Amino acid sequence: QVQLVESGGGLVQAGGSLRLSCAASGSILINYMGWYRQAPGKQRELVATMTSGGITNYADSLKGRFTISRDNAKNIMYLQMNSLKPEDTAVYYCHERGTPRGVVGFVDYWGQGIQVTVSS
């Protein structure tokens, strides 16, 4: 079984930085990975994605402030968040889509979500 666990969230002042981590257990071939967030009363939105080949994509409003990365040796995905704004306040979720060994097709995995609160 595969599990994703986020960590590193919390409360930070506007203009500050925070790094989220997503630790993955299990062994699968990852095709796609990313971070999403959902604020109260709003839909879940894409924050950043990375393909298995290392191609990244970011929400337009977050380019230049957020950086997605991965430590393949440790099976940890990161989201570095700089110059945080109150509107960044949300629950952040990590996501991976991969193919378990011996399985045809793919499976989506989600973390439990972690709160990020940016105060003004």
Q: What does this molecule look like?
A:
The chain is mainly β and about 120 residues long. The chain contains no helices and eleven strands. The chain has strands at about 5, 10-15, 20-25, 30-40, 45-50, 55-60, 65-70, 75-80, 90-100, 105-110, 115-120. Strands 2, 4, 5, 6, 9, 10 and 11 form a seven-stranded mixed beta sheet that branches. A hairpin with a 6-residue loop joins strand 9 and strand 10 (about 105-110). The radius of gyration is 14 Å and the shape is elongated.
Largest beta-sheet characterization: 7 strands, mixed
Proportion of helical residues: under 10%
Q: Estimate the strand proportion.
A: over 45%
Mean pLDDT: 93
Number of strands: 11
Q: Roughly how many Å apart are the termini? A: 41 Å
Uncertain runs are: none
H/E element order: EEEEEEEEEEE
Shape: elongated
Structure in a nutshell:
By secondary structure, the chain is an all-beta fold.
Structural descriptors:
120 residues, mainly beta, seven-stranded mixed β-sheet, four-stranded antiparallel β-sheet, 11 strands
Write the layout of secondary structure elements.
Blueprint: E1 3-7, E2 10-13, E3 18-25, E4 28-38, E5 45-51, E6 56-58, E7 66-71, E8 76-81, E9 90-100, E10 107-110, E11 114-119
Parallel strand pairs: 2-11
Antiparallel strand pairs: 1-3, 3-8, 4-5, 4-9, 5-6, 7-8, 9-10, 9-11
